[in-house]
Design brief:
288 residues; alpha/beta; 6-stranded mixed sheet; two-stranded antiparallel ribbon; 8 strands; 35% helix
């Protein structure tokens, strides 16, 4: 016997959420990407951030710290954030612009909104942290702030909305600086894998040449100076576009990134992070 279900209601999907849905639904170019699943020791960085919170009461953005380290690692070899223009040219960018999603309140719900930290390679961690907190607290963008052509495409009947990602990819290949980087940054970072307090990697299709997917953090036994110690281990996925990045530069970039994160680079008091290049050895955190 069929029963009528009465206890439910229907709400409008925010326009900014429909933008995300349109892209995620159609991003399927996984075959062009390299995926590196890393275990990164973030014990030192987390301790320094907890010490800062204890002194000031302010909670620092861990995603912002990873964005800071990402920008500094890219700054040492900007070829990892290059984009194809047509089939015969690469567009190389001087600035490292880190794109991410931040949650903002929209009416009675929260929705992710795109946000780009411009020239992140020239900023300290605290500058990036403040930008993220300001973006999270800012009013949600109105539909008028979304480009007219995008609003029009999102209002056409459902089957035709599948044209949106295809058109964006076409425009991106023709002029990545104007179409893609201006909107989403040169590199990306996503916290889609940060679920709960246990380990686990995040995997998702991406459109940046280089992207970090932040996974879970778990306490694990690690051999340090010939003794087993409990450490906080971050599961981090590095996604690189194999169309523009070869294995060797990808490996060098990944090694630099891990060194920066594990050392707590940019978090120590009195450290000049804007003008000083990082000069650490592998497993820098184990020597502190």
């Amino acid at each position: 016997m069929n029963k009528k279900i009465k206890n439910y209601h229907v709400v409008d999907l925010p326009l900014v959420r429909r933008v995300v849905l349109s892209f995620v639904d159609e991003l399927s170019s996984w075959e062009h990407y390299m995926y590196g699943l890393l275990e990164v020791d973030v014990t030192v960085a987390r301790q320094l951030m907890e010490e800062y919170k204890g002194r000031t009461g302010e909670r620092l953005s861990f995603t912002g710290y990873l964005a800071f380290c990402l920008a500094r690692a890219v700054d040492q070899d900007k070829s990892v954030q290059a984009y194809l223009k047509g089939r015969k040219q690469l567009v190389m960018f001087d600035d490292v612009d880190v794109g991410m999603m931040v949650e903002r309140q929209i009416d009675q719900t929260r929705a992710p909104v795109g946000f780009v930290i411009r020239r992140a390679n020239q900023k300290s961690f605290m500058e990036i942290h403040r930008e993220i907190r300001a973006a999270q607290a800012a009013p949600a963008p109105s539909s008028k702030e979304i480009p007219a052509w995008l609003r029009l495409l999102l209002r056409v009947p459902w089957p035709l909305t599948k044209l949106l990602p295809a058109l964006v990819r076409l425009a991106k290949r023709r002029d990545p600086a104007r179409m893609w980087v201006a909107m989403a940054g040169t590199v990306g970072i996503s916290a889609v894998g940060m679920f709960g307090n246990s380990g686990g990697w995040g995997l998702a299709p991406m459109e940046h040449s280089l992207c970090l997917i932040v996974g879970g953090i778990a306490r694990k036994p690690v051999l340090v100076r010939e003794q087993v110690e409990p450490r906080e281990i971050l599961n981090l996925t590095v996604v690189l576009d194999h169309d523009v990045i070869d294995g060797a530069p990808a490996a060098r970039f990944t090694r630099r990134l891990v060194e920066l994160i594990e050392s707590g680079y940019g978090l120590q008091e009195g450290q000049t992070v804007v003008a000083t290049e990082f000069a650490a050895t592998p497993s820098a955190s184990l020597s502190q």
